[in-house]
Each structure stands twice: as structure tokens, then as C-alpha cells.
Design goal:
Layout (H helix, E strand, L loop, with lengths): L2 H10 L23 E5 L2 E4 L4 E4 L14 H12 L9 H13 L5 E5 L2 H16 L3 E5 L16 H5 L10 H4 L2 E4 L4 H11 L3 E6 L2 E2 L5 E2 L2 H14 L2 E5 L12 H5 L5 E4 L10 E5 L1 H4 L18 H14 L4 H23 L4 E5 L2 E5 L10 H5 L3 H13 L2 E2 L8 E2 L6 H19 L1
The chain binds 4'-deoxy-4'-aminopyridoxal-5'-phosphate (PMP).
Length: 429
């Protein structure tokens, strides 16, 4: 038994399933999760002293690589000045300025402690602002474990085969409508039936929780105009795509202005942070200015702000994001080429520093939930373990996308592509 296996056994004596978030348990791929000892740049090091090139990047946050010296320094400096005050700090305004500088639609914003908190709060605000109850979401999109959104949710819930969770009362989801992703006609139909009751449409503009599936321009444009026409709030859940699909998020990539945006992951640079924000008139419905209640003891925490501010500063440096995008394209194209060389059918999606590999016979780009669900999960499992044996850590689920960082340079990408070649040759057999 190696060290990870024995740590996992002990963990299961204390934590349900041995983990604090389900996807980490390797249920989707089988086997024992790797226990991480430390990480640096593009690499993870496990408790058995193995090194892996990391394409999970903490599920997104590690866009400047792990333990970036400038981020670590900023965090240590902030920590030395006190961990939490529960009173305003200048750092919170600096964070808000940095976010608004990159995502101008967030005219006013509020910091929270996770992506889930961001989406939960944005929904309450949208309902409070419009005085309506119905929320529209899309199959295969995941917005955190918010009760009212655990309806045909993606991510861990999909992997575990429990699309709706016990513990969520029927009464809580009765106002949640789930439509087909990338299907503008479905959205038009729903709005023509109940447009005046819709408080908000929440969407991942680049879906990162049914592997990586970019929204189509037509689909997202349609959502924008339907919301405007019917007085509903358009919420872009950019917890994953924020500072990844483009520096300004998916809304910059598609040139669409949502009413509210949810952020997480990158915005905290690896600390537990989320944010939501948008139109000033909507945001000013929040307490203390308005009647919609939302609060948090640790929200805007000084150590978390330091990590996030430094991370945003680094990725904003001239040319850096373009290089990140280019190296991710290089990887995506390399994967396609290596698969073609051995005659292995697959599709690769990529937007900015997000990508997804799909084992599918279908010779068309993956744009729908149905197509994702038709991919070969068994082949993915074999692929995942073979890559792990090659020292490459991919997301341990066929329904999760991949992430890169500015430390994944050409040398790292070439090492990865050579591993892909060897693994593809095995998979063909
Ligand atoms: N929205 C999206 C798009 C996400 O990908 C996630 C997490 N993967 C969340 C919300 C929830 O964020 P958190 O896990 O920080 O609560």
C-alpha cells in the first residue's frame, strides 16, 4: 500500500468518503485519490514523492501556477497584519477596482467566500429586484450546491449519477426551470410561455462542468435579448470562465454584457473567495442600501484579498494572457494531432485557458449536453489512469474540463503531448 492509499483509508474514518468535496474521491474514474503534499508552478507532488503536470489547477484558481512567489509573499505580508477584522479594509476596494477594471459590467460588487455563495446571493438579489420567483438554468451547467439549482446539475452530481439531490425539497425547486444548453429555440419557447414570471436566467457562458463546452454566440445573444425584452436578470456564472475564457471573462470573449456576474476560483488566487456584481441599480438593492439581505463574517478577508489582488495583477501584465491562450491552443491542437496520428477519434474544445477532451466517434464539435453524455466514459477512465502513470494529472472525471497556467510553458506542454501520444497508442489497442 502506498502512502496515498493509507492516508485515504485513515481519512475515511473521519470524513465522509475521505474527502471534503466529492469529485476528489476518484469515484468517476475508480482507484484511490492521490494525496497532495505540495505544489509549485505547473507541478503537483504527492505523498509518495511522484510529480505530476497539473491540468486541474485546483479546478481553476491556479492561473499563475502553484505557489507563485509574488502571491505567497503578498499572502504572508497580509497574514502578519492580522487574519480577519470584520471591519472595512482598503484591500477590499483595491480588489473591487481590480475586478471592475477587467470586468466593467460589474459596476458594483460584493465579495463572498465561494462560488456557491456568489450564485446563491445573485439569485436572491435577482428575485428581490424583479419581485419574481422563476429561475431558468441549463442542463449540464453547475452553479455550486445551491438548493434551488441542484436540478439536473452537472459536475460532481453528474459524475455520481444523482442529478437531483435528496435533501432538496420539491418546494425549493418548483420555481427552477431547466432548459437545453446551446438551444436558443428552447429558451424562446420558455420565455413565450412564462417570460413575465422569470426573475433570472443563470448560465455558464463557457460551460466547465460538463467537461468544457463553449456557449454559441447565437445562444448567448438570444439569452441577452430575451432577458432585456422580458425584464429578467441575465446572470453569467463566470466562476470558472472568469479571467480564463479571456482576461475579461466570457463576457469579453462574446462581447455580451450580463446584468450580474458571479466570480470565484481565480478571483481568490487559491484562497476561498467569490464575488458577485453587476448593474448598479440592481446591486443597490442589497443591504445596507436596499432590502435584499446578504452578509458574511469573513467576506473580503484581508489574506484572501491579498492573494486575489496579486493574482489579478500578474495575469493583467502585458502579453501574459495572450501567451497563456497561445500555449493552451498549442496543447489543444497538439492533442488533436497526436490522436489523428494513431487514428483515435476525439474532439478537443478550448477557450482561453480552459479545454476539454472528449472521446467521441461523432465528427462534429461538442456543443450539447447530449453529445457530452454520449462520450466514451470507459475509455476516459483508462485514459485518466494511463495519464496519471505518465505523470500527468487530468481532472478525475469525464465531465470536468482542464485548466492551464502561465507556468505551463512549451516544454511542459511538449512533455504532456508526448505522454498523450504514448497513452493514445495504448488506448487504440
Ligand atoms: N459555478 C461554477 C460555474 C462552478 O464551476 C463552480 C465550482 N466548480 C461553482 C459555481 C461553485 O463554486 P464553489 O465550489 O467555489 O462553491
Amino acid at each position: 500500500m502506498n502512502h496515498s492509499q493509507s492516508l485515504f483509508e485513515t481519512a475515511q474514518e473521519y470524513l465522509p468518503g475521505g474527502v471534503n468535496s466529492p469529485v476528489r474521491a476518484f469515484k468517476g474514474v475508480g482507484g484511490t485519490p492521490i494525496f497532495i503534499r505540495r505544489a509549485e508552478g505547473p507541478y503537483l507532488y504527492d505523498e509518495d514523492h511522484n510529480r505530476y503536470i497539473d491540468f486541474v489547477c485546483s479546478w481553476g484558481p491556479a492561473v499563475v501556477g502553484h505557489a507563485h512567489p509574488e502571491v505567497v509573499e503578498a499572502v504572508c505580508e497580509a497574514a502578519a497584519g492580522g487574519l480577519s477584522f470584520g471591519a472595512p479594509t482598503e484591500a477590499e476596494t483595491r480588489m473591487a477596482k481590480a475586478i471592475r477594471g477587467l470586468v466593467p459590467s460589474m459596476e458594483r460588487l460584493r465579495m463572498v467566500n465561494s462560488g456557491t455563495e456568489a450564485t446563491m446571493s445573485a439569485l436572491r438579489l435577482a428575485r428581490g429586484f424583479t419581485g419574481r420567483d422563476v429561475i431558468v438554468k441549463f442542463e449540464g451547467n453547475y452553479h455550486g450546491h445551491v438548493d434551488s439549482l441542484l436540478v439536473k446539475a452537472g459536475s460532481g452530481a453528474l459524475t455520481l449519477g444523482t442529478p437531483t439531490s435528496p435533501g432538496v425539497p420539491e418546494s425549493v425547486v418548483k420555481d427552477t426551470v431547466t432548459l437545453n444548453y446551446n438551444d436558443p429555440e428552447d429558451a424562446r419557447r420558455a420565455f413565450s410561455e412564462m417570460g413575465e414570471r422569470v426573475a433570472a436566467v443563470i448560465v455558464e457562458p463557457v460551460a466547465g462542468n460538463m467537461n468544457c463546452v463553449p456557449g454559441t454566440q447565437d445562444f448567448l445573444n438570444t439569452l441577452r435579448s430575451l432577458c432585456t425584452e422580458h425584464g429578467a436578470v441575465l446572470i453569467f456564472d463566470e466562476v470558472m470562465s472568469g479571467f480564463r475564457a479571456a482576461l475579461g471573462g466570457a463576457q469579453a470573449h462574446y462581447e455580451i454584457t450580463p446584468d450580474l456576474t458571479c466570480l470565484g476560483k481565480v478571483v481568490g488566487g487559491g484562497m476561498p473567495v467569490g464575488a458577485f456584481g453587476g448593474r448598479r441599480d440592481i446591486m443597490e438593492h442589497l443591504a445596507p442600501l436596499g432590502p435584499v439581505y446578504q452578509a458574511g463574517t469573513l467576506s473580503g478577508n484581508p489574506v484572501a484579498m491579498a492573494a486575489g489582488i496579486k493574482t489579478l495583477e500578474i495575469i493583467s501584465r502585458p502579453g501574459l494572457f495572450q501567451r497563456l491562450e497561445q500555449s493552451t491552443s498549442y496543447l489543444a491542437q497538439g492533442i488533436r494531432d497526436r490522436a489523428r496520428e494513431v487514428g483515435l477519434p476525439l474532439q478537443v474544445n478550448q477557450v482561453g485557458s480552459m479545454f476539454g477532451v472528449f472521446f467521441t466517434e461523432q465528427d462534429t464539435p461538442v456543443t450539447s449536453y447530449a453529445h457530452v453524455m454520449n462520450c466514451d466514459v470507459d475509455r476516459f477512465r483508462r485514459f485518466f489512469h494511463a495519464m496519471l502513470a505518465e505523470g500527468v494529472y487530468m481532472a478525475p472525471s469525464a465531465f470536468e474540463g482542464g485548466f492551464t497556467s502561465i507556468t505551463h510553458d512549451e516544454g511542459v506542454m511538449d512533455d504532456t503531448l508526448n505522454a498523450f501520444s504514448r497513452v493514445f497508442a495504448q488506448l487504440k489497442r
